[in-house]
Amino acid sequence: MLKFLPVLSMLVAVTATPAFAAEPAEAVRYFYDNLGMESDPENRGRFTGPALDFFNAADAAWLRDETNCIEFGFPVDAQDFDEEEIARTLTLDEAVEGDTATVSAKFDNFGKATTIEWTLQNAATGWLVSDIASSESAWRVSAMSCK
Asked: Domain of 30?
């Protein structure tokens, strides 16, 4: 019986881990269905790599001395947004190459056409966001620092 314990432990650990989106576009859609929640600590499991590192650094800076490293909503490239207009106009185009995917989110916000590029990695729990960028506004989360 004891020789099966490690296998059973791994099985329990895998089944206890929350599963996220099976498709990259679904992983990105979550953030448009829950606008403003990308920096919520409860969503850390939806990130990996540079994006996760940035959000963790932002949390640490806030706890240390209330430094705010996030000045706008990454999914909308703005501080304010029209949730209904974004929902009505949102299109998600995904390109998958192995365990990496890019999802382009295109939408209008207060009449302004916006495109946000999401980079994702496939993990055991599903597709996780590793970077977010806007070529229009020239920012990329992986290039941001928070100290």
From this structure: 20-143
